[in-house]
Amino acid sequence: MSSAARDVDLEAVRREFPILEAKVYLNSCSLGALSRRAEARLGEFLALWHGMGASAWYEHWLARIEELRGKVASFWNADASETALLPSTSAALSVVSESVPAGSRNRIVCTELDFPTLPYQWRVKPGVEVVMLPSHDGVGVEPQQFADAVDARTLFVATSHVFFATGFVQDVAALAGIAHDAGAYCLIDGYQALGQIPVDVPASGVDFYTAGPLKWLCGGPGLAYLYVRRDLIEALRPRITSWFAAENQFAFDAGHFTYRRDARRFELGTPALAAVHTALGGQEILDEVGIEAVAARNRAHRTAHRWRPGCRLQPASGARAGAFRHRDDPPRRPRWRRSTSRRRGDHRRSPAGACAGQPTLLQYRGGRGPPGGGAGRAGTVSGPGGRKVRKLVTNAAQRTDGSGTGSGSRARVRRIATRTPRTR
Ligand SMILES: Cc1ncc(COP(=O)(O)O)c(C=O)c1O
Questions:
Q1: What is the pTM of this model?
Q2: Residue nearest to atom 16 of ligand 1 (CA)
Q3: Cα gap 344→404, rounded to integer Å
Q4: Is the distance from CB of 86 to CB of 95 less than 8 angstroms?
């Protein structure tokens, strides 16, 4: 049965997340809400640690790691053998960047809307040219821009599935095609996609895809997931490694190293077990609800809450009329993207004002960007916990005098706002 057809009581699912009783949670793009299920899984881990100590490794915990790997693999429609667990997205990106033979290729094609940890991987490597594609509208980047930049010098097209600051969804299959036509690899940072939209990684044709439980999978910090295309795995030899990547891990043979034949050859050491447990709790809920249902709910909220009084962005002084339209609405922007509103006006009136009278937790990036620019950051709610599913972007650099341009995404300051907004 398709997950869209499942009969899931979403209100019951919401009750699994205590914070939703108290707050409108608009911050899954930073940290997904904690569920009772994840908390219980963590409790099991702690109880075993108390009761069994290290012997729990062999009787329980190694199996939990494999359970999580299997769940993640099915969630992105790959095989467990194509799925590695790493400590963070940054670690996953860095092991990928240290796995491919560069040959004569030294060009990496990214965009200015990617989360900075992605281009940083190559900014620190001598002799590498990082091409940063601009966003002409501050929201997305056209596939044609990639096609124009990728050539025989290109080693990686390395970019995001969903841009962290704008919610724009890229056509990753098209990007994989562009990369492969030029003999380059395609590496996708899917942190803001997995758990928010359906993802079938093998079908997209990308070579590498990273994500993690922290955000939309409601599984907490301490882990990341890496997909490596099956026919690449055995051809690649990561230049940073660990005993988890060794074929016979428990032989403790320091004199020889042989890579594992599956994606575990990209792993970097003992996974954070507490995170494995909380991630299992979050993943279990996502699996029960089904990503199609999550995506459908997001779509419904994008429509239903667009103009709902008391639960939408209130125009600040100087805001343009219509500034709260979803920018994927024709005729302004015909393409589909995540629920995202870009707000013009005074950033001091934060989107917390969106839900007048309700304690709201969100995140935005203050106006400390480059002069005249700097995109806002999204506050989002979605997944099983999402009621007001929309991504709210404050363009902090756009001051009430209208002098900001709003392009770029170099916000430097992160502030978490938890407040009961004033009614205006
Ligand atoms: C798209 C994206 N990639 C990467 C990261 C950072 O990942 P990590 O801290 O696991 O390296 C974030 C964090 O917000 C993100 O939004």
A1: 0.79
A2: 164
A3: 10
A4: yes
Fold of 39-284: Aspartate Aminotransferase; domain 2 (3.40.640)
Residue/partner pairs of 59-64 with CB below 8 Å, 24 or more apart:
61/273, 61/276, 64/273, 64/276, 64/277, 64/280
Taking the CA of residue 214 as reference, the ligand 1 atom at the shortest distance is 10
Query: Does 89 sit in the ligand 1 pocket, CB within 6 Å?
Result: yes
**Ligand 1 center to 24 CA (angstroms):** 23
Q: What is the pLDDT along the chain (424 residues), one digit of tens a residue?
A: 444 456 788 899 999 999 999 988 888 999 999 999 999 999 999 999 999 999 999 999 999 999 999 999 999 999 999 999 999 999 999 999 999 988 889 999 999 999 999 999 999 999 999 999 999 999 999 999 999 999 999 999 999 999 999 999 999 999 999 999 999 999 999 999 999 999 999 999 999 999 999 999 999 999 999 999 999 999 999 999 999 999 999 999 999 999 999 999 999 999 999 999 999 999 999 999 999 999 888 877 766 554 343 333 333 333 332 223 333 333 333 344 443 333 333 333 344 444 445 666 665 544 333 332 333 333 333 333 333 323 333 322 222 222 222 333 323 222 222 232 332 2
317 CA from centroid of ligand 1 (Å)? 33
Nearest Cα to Cα of residue 64 among 88, 78, 46, 89? 46
CB 119 within 8 A of CB 108: yes
Kindly state if the Cβ of 32 falls inside 6 Å of ligand 1. Answer: no
Our mutation pick for probing the ligand 1 site, out of 29, 89, 338, counting the most ligand atoms within 8 A of Cβ, is: 89
Characterize the bridge pairing of strands 129-133 and 24-26.
unpaired
Query: Given ligand 1 and candidates 85, 117, 196, 416, which is best to mutate, with the most ligand atoms within 8 Å of its CB?
Result: 117
